[in-house]
Every structure is written in C-alpha cells, then in structure tokens.
Design a protein that fits this description.
With 189 residues, the chain is an alpha+beta fold. 37% of the residues lie in helices and 31% in strands. It contains four helices and eight strands; from the N terminus they run ααββββααββββ. An eight-stranded antiparallel beta sheet has the order 4-3-2-1-5-6-7-8. A hairpin with a 6-residue loop joins strand 2 and strand 3. The longest helix is centred in the N-terminal third of the chain and has 39 residues. It is globular and about 45 Å long.
Amino acid sequence: MKRTRTLYVSAATAVVLMAGGPAAVASAATADTARTAAAAAVPAQVSAEEAAAAALKHYPGVIESLDLDGAVWQVDVVSKDGRGHAELEVSATGAVTEQNKDTNENAAENKPLTGAKVTAERAAKAALAAHPGQVTTVEWDDDDGTASWHVEIKGKDGKTWDVQVDHATGKVTTSGSDSGDSDSDDGNN
C-alpha cells in the first residue's frame, strides 16, 4: 500500500513538472530566491552583549574588539593566556563563524588586555549608562600608551557617541557626539 502511494505521488509530480515545464522550475527558483533575499534583509537582532556572549562561548577568552558591520558583528577574541587570537563573525541570529585563528600570538603584547579589570562587555554597559542607545563598536585602545576602551553608541537622541572608558575603574573618562555631519567630536558630555 505504501509503495503504491509513493508511485502515485511520484507520477503526479512528474505530470505537474511536464505540464508546467520550465515555467514551474523557474517559479520554484524564484520562490527560493525571494526567501533567501528576505532572510538576508533581516536587521541585526543580536545586541553587542549577546554577540560577545556568543563569541566567548565559541572561543573562550577576552574580547579585544566588537564591531557591528551591517547585520553582522565582527568580534576579535584573545585567549586568556594571550597566545591565541580568533576573528569571529556573529550573525543576526547569533550563529558564530570562525574567520581566522592564530595560536602564535605574543602573550606579553596582550598582557594589558588580558589583565584589564574591565572587560569589553562592562565597558559597553558603562557607556550605555552615560548615553542610552545601541552599541556599535567596542575596542581596546592602547596605541598611545594609555589603555582604555573606545565605545561607539548610536544614541536614542540620533547622535553617534564616542565614549572612552577607563580599563581599571570602568568609569567614562571622555565622551563626545558626532552629529553625523562631520567626523569630529564636539566635546560635549
């Protein structure tokens, strides 16, 4: 009985494809393309905090940077011993993809980051407390010899806020907004 039903279903499918010919195949392909395009148009649904948690679950360590690129988070993680480094992508659904991984990092160069009292996640929370909105970037900055966290927030007020957070205390040390018309900070707190 089961074999007979399968035969009837297969025969019916063949008749539909023969009757519809290329138009049926094109219609099915168009439906698949529309579903794929709709899925690609999904906005970022994962917050910075959620992206950080997903990245650290995939590659345990300390976040060095977290950057929203469209609907995808680019996350750099340094291993707790400072010798490993992974570049990860966290999708709008929270799926993590490893882009690059290195196990030959100089642990001494990463020591300020791995030894910092304030994590990227905590720096983001401090910046959001000062300027509510959506975190778009968190990155470790020690280029000038003074380590701090740089956090960018798309504020609820429509401005982009650049916030510096102390790596030892978690306090906001400077902040300024960019009205979107120029690349310079206005220096307002």
